[in-house]
């Protein structure tokens, strides 16, 4: 029993470390392969990129709430609802210099929201 538990724990830790955050370059590469038409929403790649963005915004929002709850000044002061079009998103990510596109999508969203929705001093 202990051997099985140890193997499962090892497998879970390997899986967790193997799953890394998507970089901006990976995001753009996938996005460029998706056709810009209504059928794009039916593609698995589209859903994967949408989920990546949803997770990035959720993480940044959670960091904001945690900082406010701890009495610290958050990095962003995003409003409750943030609307982002696909064109605006791709324009923002394409504006990131190629040398910096190895940052995670979450980090790119964090920097974007900090510049678009800064907290008052």
Structure summary:
With 121 residues, this protein is an all-alpha fold. The protein has helices spanning 2-18, 24-33, 44-69, 86-94, 105-116. Helices cover 61% and strands 0% of the residues.
Helix-residue proportion: 55-70%
Sketch the major β-sheet. none
Total individual domains: 1
**Spatial gap, N to C terminus:** 56 Å
Using DSSP, what is the number of strands?
Answer: 0
**Unreliable residue runs:** 1-19
3D architecture notes:
The chain has 5 helices and no strands. It is mostly helical.
Overview features:
5 helices; disordered N terminus; mainly alpha; 121 residues; single chain
List the helices and strands and how they pair.
Elements: H1 2-18, H2 24-33, H3 44-69, H4 86-94, H5 105-116
């Amino acid at each position: 029993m202990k051997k099985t538990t140890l193997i499962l724990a090892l497998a879970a830790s390997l899986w967790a470390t193997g799953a890394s955050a998507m970089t901006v370059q990976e995001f753009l590469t996938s996005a460029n392969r998706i056709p810009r038409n209504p059928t794009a929403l039916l593609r698995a790649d589209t859903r994967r990129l949408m989920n990546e963005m949803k997770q990035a915004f959720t993480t940044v929002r959670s960091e904001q709430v945690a900082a406010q709850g701890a009495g610290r000044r958050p990095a962003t002061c995003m409003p409750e609802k943030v609307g982002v079009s696909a064109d605006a998103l791709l324009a923002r990510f394409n504006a990131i210099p190629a040398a910096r596109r190895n940052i995670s999508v979450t980090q790119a969203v964090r920097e974007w929201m900090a510049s678009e929705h800064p907290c008052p001093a």
